[in-house]
Design a protein that fits this description.
The chain is α+β, with helices and mostly antiparallel strands. It has one domain. A three-stranded antiparallel beta sheet has the order 2-5-6, with no helix packed on it. A hairpin with a 2-residue loop joins strand 3 and strand 4. The two termini are about 15 Å apart. About 5% of the residues are buried.
Amino acid sequence: MNFEKALKELKSGKKIIRVGWSGAENYVRLIRESTLDGKTLTPYFVIHVDGEGYTMFQPTVCDLLAEDWKLVD
């Protein structure tokens, strides 16, 4: 699926990954708006990577234009 469709899935709470990735990446997920120390945190993406846990994820232009996104259980 393309990123437009994948984004809808992220917004509904699903996890996604690109088929073209062949590394330790497990999935990308959306972290909704929250608060920290009384301040608002805007929504952001994280990626879960084997051996590293979660880290921030910012899609590249290639990711945004890719057609190989899929849902992860």
